[in-house]
C-alpha cells in the first residue's frame, strides 16, 4: 500500500465527505447516537461543509490535506482560525481522521504535519474517551489544559489540548 499526503482540492470533496462519515462511524459508534451517525443526509451535509471550506481555502483561513492510497482518499485533515470565545491558539486543528485500517502507518502524522505549522500555537478538541487519539496528540506535544466541553451535538465530552508554538 502506497500512501501519499497532499493538499486538498475541490475535486476531493466527495472522497473527503465519505472519509469523514465513515471514520465517524468507526470511531464514535456507541459514543454518538446511531441516529446521528446513520442520518441519511449526513454525507450531503459533510459534502456541503467540505465544498464551502475548500472554496475558501486561503492559507490564512483553512488548510486541508488528504491522504491517498491507490487513488482513493483514506484520510483527511484540516486546520483553520481559532473558534470564538476563550481561544488560546493561533490555529485550530478541526479535523484529523483516517480509516482504522491504516492506523499505525504514519499517515496521521503526515496529515498533522501537512496542516499544522509548528511556529503557531495550536489547539484541538478530542473526544473523551479516545485514548488512541489523545496519546497521538500527546506524542506531538499537545497537552490537555483541563478545559472540557460537550460537542456541537451535546453528546460527546471533549477535552481541549494545546501545543505551544515552537513545539514539533
TrEMBL record:
Ribonucleoprotein is among the record's keywords: yes
GO cellular component: ribosome
A Pfam entry, by short name: Acetyltransf_1
Record-linked InterPro entries: Acyl_CoA_acyltransferase, Bact_Acetyltransf, GNAT_dom
Record lineage: Bacteria, Bacillati, Actinomycetota, Actinomycetes, Micrococcales
One GO molecular-function entry: acyltransferase activity, transferring groups other than amino-acyl groups
Listed name of the protein: Ribosomal protein S18 acetylase RimI
Gene3D superfamilies found in the cross-reference section: 3.40.630.30
Organism encoding this protein: Brevibacterium iodinum ATCC 49514
Amino acid at each position: 500500500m502506497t500512501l501519499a499526503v497532499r493538499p486538498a482540492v475541490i475535486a476531493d470533496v466527495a472522497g473527503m465527505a465519505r472519509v469523514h462519515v465513515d471514520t465517524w462511524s468507526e470511531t464514535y459508534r456507541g459514543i454518538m447516537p446511531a441516529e446521528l451517525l446513520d442520518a441519511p443526509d449526513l454525507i450531503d451535509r459533510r459534502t456541503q461543509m467540505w465544498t464551502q471550506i475548500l472554496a475558501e481555502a486561503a492559507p490564512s483561513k483553512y488548510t486541508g490535506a488528504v491522504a491517498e492510497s491507490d487513488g482513493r482518499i483514506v484520510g483527511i485533515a484540516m486546520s483553520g482560525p481559532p473558534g470564538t470565545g476563550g481561544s488560546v491558539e493561533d490555529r485550530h486543528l478541526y479535523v484529523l481522521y483516517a480509516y482504522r485500517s491504516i492506523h499505525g502507518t504514519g499517515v496521521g502524522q503526515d496529515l498533522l504535519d501537512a496542516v499544522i505549522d509548528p511556529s503557531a500555537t495550536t489547539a484541538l478538541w478530542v473526544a473523551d474517551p479516545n485514548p488512541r487519539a489523545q496519546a497521538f496528540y500527546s506524542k506531538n506535544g499537545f497537552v490537555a489544559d483541563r478545559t472540557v466541553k460537550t460537542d456541537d451535538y451535546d453528546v460527546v465530552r471533549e477535552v481541549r489540548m494545546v501545543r505551544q508554538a515552537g513545539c514539533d
